[in-house]
Amino acid sequence: xxxxxxxxxxxxxxKQVNFTVDEHRHRFHAQGEFSYLDLDxxxxxxxxxAPGKSVSFPHKNFHGCLENLFYNGVDIIDLxxxxxxxxxxxxxxxxxCSQSQSVPVTFLSPKSYLALPGLSREDELSAMFQIRTWNKxxxxxxxxxxxxxxxxxxxxxxxxxxxxxxxxGKLPSDITAGVGLxxxxxxxxxxxxKRNHLSVAVDGQVASAASSLGPEQFYSGGTYYFGGCPDNxxxxxxxxPVGGFQGCMRLISIGNKVVDLISVQQGSLxxxxxxxxxxxxxxxxxxxxxxxxxxxxxQSWSTFHCNCANTGxxxxxxxxxxxxxxxxxxxxxxxxSGFYYIDSDGxxxxxxxLLYCNMT
Length: 360
What we know:
Helix content is 5%, strand content 37%. The protein is mainly β. Among the domains are: 105-277, Jelly Rolls, CATH 2.60.120.200; 296-357, no CATH class. The chain is globular, with a radius of gyration of 27 Å. Strands 6, 8, 13, 14, 15, 17, 18 and 20 form an 8-stranded antiparallel β-sheet that branches. The chain has a 7-stranded antiparallel β-sheet with strand order 12-11-10-9-16-7-19, with no helix packed on it. Strands 1-2-3 form a 3-stranded antiparallel β-sheet, with no helix packed on it. It contains 3 helices and 26 strands. This is Contactin-associated protein-like 4. It is found in: Membrane. It comes from Neovison vison. Its main location: membrane. Residues 318-360 form the Fibrinogen C-terminal domain.
């Protein structure tokens, strides 16, 4: 997802499968007893048509460009252009590739922040942007309120989005939206606060609430702080209860006005600290997956973690077997005859198996 073209080649001959991405080839054998492939009558590219399909597919449909799409030497795109009856096109598909010119910005550390001027004395506080991160928590946006004291906090907490509008002496208004937003994919976020109404949308799903401000008028603060707060020596009233955001943002708008991040980079708009502008420097630490024996990999900005539950192995990368290598080893521990899991090759590729150990 670096805005460049990538070449994908999938070849299958008998049980031998070659999977190549940009000249990086991975060879493996297909599982199962038979060497021939009994395919469904329908092959779909970019998504799976849901009606009548028994398969459930957890991922979103592909959004981007495909070219040189060949299946067994047949030019699929050419057939689609000719509107051949055997090709069914669903949704918004065009035979061109419009390149998105969005400028991403990367928040490299917990001390990163981007301070942007808001429209002064606006009676509505609103912003839109997209994020991607592996971290479960981090401040996304803070803005101070004028005329009434208080502020608006938008942050990630446990992979969910929380919008918090607070005033001294009043109960804060709180909205939670979205789930699993730390999956490394882009997610769109928009928020609006006006008089006694709050709303926030995540990927088009809207959540709203009545605010505790009541009918009082308020104006948006002069500055919007994205990703974190400057240190207190700058005199800002920015609050950050969850630590800095580490990840990428793009397509930032304040009050329906798109922010020119190149102007920020050149120093003519707002100010920032510890940012990388015009690239998204997020790293997938689970690719390649260092978790062995089927361990599940999860990650944050800086580290990865292996969940070794139900694998029969332990350690940072699920490398060490939790079972002994022989009946004799169990006998030395004083165990009596019975069924035991044996891992004959220890950390090797063979799975543990259950057998009866006769200790007599």
